[in-house]
């Protein structure tokens, strides 16, 4: 049985977008998940990241295997390479007038590449190459806190509104609770059994909060880890050292974990000193996509490239649970001393299919005379409106989610530019990538477009190469712990995030 999540469990911090709300009366919108798992910034080798990710008209790099496999046709020798990455994120929050800052760092393997180059046959086919690569497309590294004193509401007000909206009576909420395990079958039963809400009168809706004391000190912690990654097989052909064609297949892996806690302390509480609300989400998935592309050398100094990557079709399974821990005030008249103080929801396992956006890129590179370097530029179309989520047991649910995606997101065109200057065996690189705001409406009055700046250096000999790169990004976001029917009674934490990635690629030729 599907029990759709009530919560949007992250602010999409790494995407720089920010969730509309953590707790929403309308239920969970899986379009946010689809976007989170679909967005990518800059990935690949240190060489390509140092160029701002502009690689559609460049070749002879392991990154070509999943961006434009036509670039594999530029290889004239085989290669083995590895790309370690160190990601660092600092997030500053402002909530109810209070500020907080936190940083987190995580190392990972950004790319592995093995390319087998072959001599051509016949008069036109000059060379070809087969590639096997692993790449980390996106990292979900995020760890931040919001804290402040709320004069207007408690999260318990959301619990009361949710229970009122559902309309279940207290007898039903009792039946949905198992005292032997301390677990509830529904979220509203968990709210009720935690002594946070009670009927206004009688045994049914509307519901009210039990602890009415304001102000309330609120602190929340949100931590995310995981990635989307791919193993790719690709093949590229060089015709006449002028036309390059390639195609490939990618096997996608999705791994995402999010842990959220929200703590409240009532300085003037009569029933409660405070409570903790928490939730855990674990997502796993696997899927497939296909890519094809071409590069054409228009002149000795100009190459033009184009590539197409199909949507990834991913089977997703998630495990979700939530809990409430209360701290009763000694001698309060409501909660008996024998009452349980820790109630959780039953573990919810839900499987669905995810379709990510179609991507299409076009670009050109101008090579300086005497092999002194080049300038490259790309435009990348990303069809976010084409994302989709489906439940095999409920077609109407997928239709509703699809309509939500179309009304929430825009298709975008990302722009990339990069340059490389060569001094004998040394390469110096710089680049940038601009990502427009994909949301149709401004959420929390924020422009969520992003500009990433990159730079790097490299050394290349006849036997090996080493490249270094840095990717720097700063963007605004927002996180709303919960929503209420009256927008005047809740607020958002404004977020400023600074992301830095240090990338090293080392490879050898054989």
Protein traits:
mainly beta, Porin, 23 strands, two-stranded antiparallel ribbon, 14-stranded antiparallel barrel, 510 residues
How does this structure look, described?
The chain has 510 residues and is mainly beta. It has helices at 31-38, 46-50, 64-67, 155-166, 170-175, 187-193, 395-408, and strands at residues 79-95, 98-119, 125-139, 142-150, 177-178, 183-184, 197-199, 207-209, 216-239, 243-266, 272-297, 302-309, 313-328, 342-345, 348-355, 359-367, 373-382, 388-390, 412-423, 426-435, 450-460, 464-479, 493-509. It has a domain at 13-154 and 211-378: Outer membrane protein transport protein (OMPP1/FadL/TodX) (Porin, Beta Barrel), CATH 2.40.160.60. 11% of the residues lie in helices and 53% in strands. It has a 14-stranded antiparallel beta barrel with strand order 1-2-3-9-10-11-12-16-17-19-20-21-22-23. Strand 21 and strand 22 (464-479) form a beta hairpin. Helix 4 packs across helix 6. The protein is elongated.
Count of distinct strands: 23
Mean pLDDT: 93
Q: Name the poorly predicted regions.
A: 7-23
Report the top-level CATH class of the domain at 13-154 and 211-378: Mainly Beta
Within the largest sheet, what's the order of strands? 1-2-3-9-10-11-12-16-17-19-20-21-22-23
In sequence order, what are the helices and strands, one letter per element?
HHHEEEEHHEEHEEEEEEEEEEEEHEEEEE
Helix content: 10-25%
Structural class: mainly beta
CATH-defined superfamily of the domain at 13-154 and 211-378 = Outer membrane protein transport protein (OMPP1/FadL/TodX)
Amino- and carboxy-terminal Cα gap:
54 Å
Query: What's the gyration radius in Å?
Result: 26 Å
Number of helices: 7
Indicate the CATH topology of the domain at 13-154 and 211-378: Porin
- The backbone outline, from C-alpha atoms, is elongated
Main sheet record: 14 strands, antiparallel, barrel
Assign the CATH architecture of the domain at 13-154 and 211-378: Beta Barrel
Percentage of residues in strands? over 45%
